[in-house]
Amino acid sequence: MVFFLEMSTSRAVKIHRGCGLRRALSPSLVVILGATGTGKSKLAIEIGKRLRGEIISADSMQVYQGLDIITNKVTAKERAQCRHHMISFVDPLVSNYTVVDFRNKAVSLISFPTALPPPLHDMHRRNKLPIIVGGTNYYIESLLWRVLLDAGVNTDRKLELEKLGGAELHRRLMEVDPEMASMLHPNDKRKIARSLQIHHETGIPHSSWLEEQRGQEGGDGLGGPLRYQDPCIFWLHADMDALDERLDARVDEMLSVGLIEELRDFHVRFNQKKVQNDSQNYQHGIFQSIGFKEFHDYLTYETALLSISLLGVEALKTATRRYARKQNKWVRNRFLKRPGDGVPAVYGLDVTDVARWEETVLTPALQILDSLCKGEKPSTEPIRLQRAELRNKRSRHTCDLCDKVIIGDLEWAALHLKLWSKLYFRLAFFLLLFFFLWTLQLQTIRYLDTWPLHQEEVKKNPSPSPPDIDLSLFCCRITISKEPISPCFIN
C-alpha cells in the first residue's frame, strides 16, 4: 500500500507506508551534512513532515539555552512543523558538556536498549524516522560509529592539560605513547591532551585502543563498526562564491533582527564578570559560538563605537566563511575519504541555486529515500572517490627547509609540491637578477673605460652626448645622461 507525498512541484514521489517504520528500518536513520548556510534544517523539516520523522539537532552550540540568533536555531514556527530534539536544554554556564553526553542522549532517543513506558518510547519503537541534522560533524560521527572508548572525559583534567604549551604536551605524549605522538601535530593541543588523558585514565596507550578498534569487523582508525545499519546520508554542498554571498547576507539579516543586542544582553548576564576578572574563555561551552570573540572589543568598551561594531561585523562574516570551509573539509576527510569497506553511501545535493531548491534538492532526496525504503538502488549515484585519494597515512614529516612539522602523506606531498614551486620561481628570479647586475657591471666598466675619450671630446665639443650603456640583452637601451658627467660622479 502506498500514499503520495504532497509537493509543490508538478510531480509527486511515491513513498511506501513502511518507510521508516520499525519493521522496515531501511534507512535506519537519515543524516544531513553540510556547511552552515546550506539549508540543512529546511530539508530536514520537509523530510520529517513527509516521512513521519523527528529531528535530532547535532549542533554543539544549539544545545545551550539562549543565543538563538547567533547559533541560528530553528524558529518556533519551524519546530511546530516537525518535532525537534536536543535544542536549548543545557544551562549556558555549563562548560563541560561533551560529545559523549550528546551521543548517549541521542542514542537513547533513537533506540533505547530496553523498553520504556509508551510515552517515553524511542523513535524506532514509535515508528518514527530519526533525522540527524547539524553542523557539528564530530557529534554526528560519534552517533554513527561505535568506539571502544565509551567513557566520558574528565573535563577538568583535560582543561588542566590544555593550559600547558604544545611542545610540553607533545613531549609528555612521546614518553607514554610515541606512536600516537608521531601522528599528532605539536600544535594540536586538544588531541594531544585527549590522548594523554586516555592513557592516564585507562593505563593503555591511545594508539593501542585505536589498533584494537581497527581489528573489529567494520572498524577503522577513525571508529568502530556502524551503530545503525543502512543509514541514508545527504551532503548539501554549494559553489563557495555563491555560499559566501549567502553567508554574508545571513549575517546582515541576523544583525537586523537583533544579533548585537542578543550578544550584549548575554554578555552582561554571563560573561561581563569573567572579563573583569580576565577569566573569559572563548574555547569552551557556549562562548565558543562565532560572534563572542569577534565582538569582544565592542562588548567590553564602555562606550559602543560604530567603528568597532563594523570591525566586529566584518570579523563575524570572515569567521563564518572560514567555518563553512572547515565543515566541508571535515565531510571530505571523515566521511567521503573514510577508510574501510563499511562506509555508508553519501549522496550529494547541490544547493547553489536557491530558486531551483525543490528540483535539485528536495525531489532527489525524496526519490533516494523512496528507493531505499523499497530496497532498490537509487537512480542517483553516491559520491565516490578514487582509491588513490583514500590513502593518507598519518605519518609525521619534518621539513628542514621551512622548519615545519607536517602530519599526513598527502599533506606532505601537497606542501612540497607548493614549496618546490616557490623555490623554482625564487631561483629563477635570483638568476635573472644576478644576470642583470652582471651585465650592468660589464656595461659600467665599458663606460668608465671610455670616459677619458669622452673628456677629450668635451674639450673639442662643449655638448657631446655621453656614451650609452647598452643592455640589449634585456631588449632595452638605458641612457644614463645626456649631459656631461661631472668628475665627482666618478669619484
From TrEMBL:
Pfam families: IPPT. GO terms for cellular component: mitochondrion. Gene3D superfamilies: 1.10.20.140, P-loop containing nucleotide triphosphate hydrolases. One of its GO terms (biological process) is tRNA modification. GO terms for molecular function: ATP binding; tRNA dimethylallyltransferase activity; zinc ion binding. It catalyses: adenosine(37) in tRNA + dimethylallyl diphosphate = N(6)-dimethylallyladenosine(37) in tRNA + diphosphate. Belongs to the IPP transferase family. This is tRNA dimethylallyltransferase. It comes from Hippocampus comes.
